[in-house]
Amino acid sequence: MNEGEIAVFNMSKVGRNIAKLRKRTGITQMGLADRLCISYQAVSNWERGETMPDISKLPQIAEIFDVSIDEILDEGKGTQILKNMMDNTTEEYLQHHEVSLEEISEIAPLLRTEQVDEFVEHVKESVKISDLLSIAPFVSENVIDECAKKAFEQEGISSLVPMAPFISEGVIDVCAKKAFEQEGISSLVPIAPFISEDVIDACAKKAFEQEGISSLVPMAPFISDDVIDACAKKAFEQEGISSLVPIAPFLSDDVIDACAKKAFEQEV
């Protein structure tokens, strides 16, 4: 079985079904679009198999063509899931049927966010947060944040990387602070682009106090200029100009020049 055959919906087949029913009913694409209050392009995209009708439009389309929803959609589990959702029996259906994330991802574009959330709540105990990537654009931030917190507690900060663009900055920051306390500043590197500058700077200051200027090298591209310059000045006073070599590409010209002048004066 190839990839196209395991999909919950075959969009090309659904598009052909809509085109066949429309022609049989004697309605033009423009006429169907007008009755559904959508654009002509939307109907055209359906029939070319490029997109699927929104779930809210399915009962109306079925009524216009005087057919069941089964005759519009490709027969399969996805059709059954959608029918149960429209009948408000989703919870009952989920209690008696297994639904995979792959199946959810296929119908997610047709659903409202709260409907996708309901499915994710049903399967979240048995999946990793990285498995949610395929449906992340359709899931609420609250559900993603909840899954992120659990993943962090079980697997650490690196487990959040694939889903980081969808996790709230507040949750990322909380997890980053805990990871820093547990594993040090280097543990933040994979997730650094998604941590707030305030949290990065606070961790950098602590890391410098505890381990010295060299500890900042992995995170240097993400530390603010003010903080890295301030740490460099202290490191110079404590250890001399050679201590700045690893971090030099990230220091301002003013700080490097000032330290160089002092070092020259001290050694002459």
From TrEMBL:
Keyword DNA-binding set for record: yes
Source superkingdom: Bacteria
Classification via InterPro entries: Cro/C1-type_HTH (IPR001387), Lambda_DNA-bd_dom_sf (IPR010982)
Domain HTH cro/C1-type intervals: 18-72
CDD domains, per database record: HTH_XRE (cd00093)
Keyword DNA-binding: yes
An example molecular function term from Gene Ontology annotations: DNA binding
Record keywords: DNA-binding
Protein name (database record): HTH cro/C1-type domain-containing protein
Species, as recorded: Paenibacillus selenitireducens
